[in-house]
Design brief:
- By secondary structure, the chain is mostly loops.
- The chain has a domain of 25 residues.
- The protein is 0% helix and 3% strand.
- The protein contains no helices and two strands.
- The chain is elongated, with a radius of gyration of 41 Å.
Length: 476
């Protein structure tokens, strides 16, 4: 017959071997296990606070510690543990299927229950390099999240939702300022007060330690509605850099570094019955400060394409920009490019020159083929229904006087063979119908015709011979 009598001791040391406790064991002081080499606590059941089902332990004014559970380990020798040690190892493993089950390796809550608090953190994890000595650290991660599978698998796992190494979620309620809620914060600091340049804020790379090669469908995907997709608000040397990127070529011209729609599918912009504006790309710079060194330049956009090397590519076409507008319905205006320079009410001195557009072509080497500073090509069967002008020069607005409508200028030792060249069918050399003070349809009778020639303009006639247009010093 079992003897279940209670016993107790009040002082001294009691040694037990293979003791079996059939009921509750209540310890009102400290329970100490022996030397780390021998002492251990082997648990074959549930561990919980308060009761077997679990209940909160009241932290009252008499509790003098800042932790509920505290485990500290100091490694004085690696000979026993080998080259790896975990301060705490927790593993939850399922050996049977459960289509509706949920399993956590560890679940941690930090709860502010109807109470305010200055700093609330679900978990605080830190990789800490302590002391002041010359040491070498290979890898250091504050948090290491990983999803892994056995590489020897021959069967395929079916993924029904999603997999991620790190998953974060915001479940918000009613707060005074929702803009203070962030999905992720990376904050850099320097403990000794120095100013250093660190590596990457976010680095996404292929794991060189695995045998395969990983390719992402999308490097960064923001599918949530955003006021601004990406904001760069610090001091930035280069906002977005594609220098080290290999841009892949293709036959359909769908690959690009930046895409807002593509050649195979346009980005649809739906207009509404109101005032609608959209600038898919905006660059708005305001120049301030002091006068810089002469020759300083600020470009809103800088583009350069260089065809070098030893290989000729006669099948290659180079364009810094390929702009197109397709019009299928009635509109007000259409411009492929509209440039404008506005001089305000301040008096401005231009040291060099100012132009809405400046086109320069440098032919230091021998060029075989057609060379054009500007090509205006207007064509199509519907052209007869429009008021068509190849190049229009006008002063629109105000009462300014334009010194020259068009200047054809040979500078220095350069020469121009033909100031104007007319080819094909040209009805008029010039049309002055809409110009005040110039003659076209009106003419003078022979008796009143001017006879004093002040000069003449040489032209190349259709026969290839020289011809002249006389310039008279008097109107008649």
């Amino acid at each position: 017959m079992a003897n279940n009598r209670r016993f107790g001791w009040h002082s001294g040391t009691m040694s037990c071997k293979n003791a079996r406790i059939l009921g509750d064991l209540t310890i009102q002081d400290t329970l100490i296990f022996g030397d780390v080499s021998f002492g251990a606590l082997a648990v074959k059941g549930r561990m919980s606070s308060g009761t077997k089902a679990g209940s909160a332990i009241d932290i009252d004014a008499n509790y003098a510690y800042g932790q509920g559970h505290e485990f500290r380990w100091t490694i004085s020798s690696w000979s026993g543990t080998g080259n790896s040690f975990d301060g705490q190892y927790i593993r939850a493993q399922s050996d049977i299927d459960n289509a509706s089950g949920t399993m956590h390796g560890i679940q941690v809550f930090s709860v502010a229950n109807a109470s305010g608090i200055a700093d609330l953190q679900g978990a605080f994890v830190q990789a800490y390099v302590k002391g002041d000595s010359t040491d070498t650290v290979g890898q250091a991660y504050g948090i290491h999240g990983e999803f892994s599978m056995d590489g020897i698998r021959s069967n395929t796992i079916t993924l029904t939702t999603e997999v991620a190494a790190i998953f974060g979620r915001i479940l918000s309620g009613k707060v005074n300022d929702y803009t203070k809620i962030h999905g992720q914060i990376l904050r850099f600091g320097d403990m000794d007060g120095g100013s250093r340049t660190y590596g990457n804020g976010i680095l996404i790379e292929d794991d060189a330690g695995t045998s395969g090669t990983s390719v992402l469908t999308t490097g960064l995907n923001i599918s949530l509605a955003c006021t601004t997709g990406i904001t760069l608000s610090g001091a930035v040397t280069t906002g977005i850099d594609f220098t080290a990127t290999t841009l892949a070529l293709d036959s359909s011209r769908t690959n690009s570094a930046i895409a807002i729609g593509d050649r195979l599918g346009a980005k649809t912009i739906t207009m509404a019955a109101a005032t609608n504006h959209l600038d898919p790309v905006q660059i708005n710079l305001s120049i301030a400060g002091v006068d810089p060194t002469a020759g300083s330049t600020i470009n809103g956009i800088y583009q350069l394409i260089t065809h070098g090397g030893a290989t000729n590519m006669p099948g290659l076409r180079l364009k810094c920009a390929d702009w197109n507008v397709v019009v299928k319905r009635n509109i007000q205006d259409a411009y492929v490019y509209q440039g404008e320079i506005d001089y305000t009410t301040n008096s401005v001195t231009v040291g060099g020159e100012t132009a809405v557009m400046s086109l320069n072509m440098n032919c230091d080497s021998t060029v075989t083929g057609d060379v054009r500073g500007l090509i205006v090509n207007i064509y199509g069967a519907g052209l007869a229904n429009a008021s068509s002008i190849g190049i229009e020069v006008r002063t629109d607005g105000g009462s300014a006087t334009l010194d020259e409508g068009i200047r054809i200028w040979s500078v220095g030792a350069n020469t121009i063979t033909a100031g104007l060249l007319f080819a094909g069918t040209v009805t008029y050399f010039a049309d002055f119908d809409n110009t005040a003070g110039a003659e076209n349809t009106a003419y003078e009778a022979d008796a009143n015709a001017a006879t004093t020639i002040a000069g003449k303009v040489m032209i190349n006639t259709s026969a290839g011979a020289k011809g002249y247009i006389n310039v008279y010093s008097t109107p008649n």
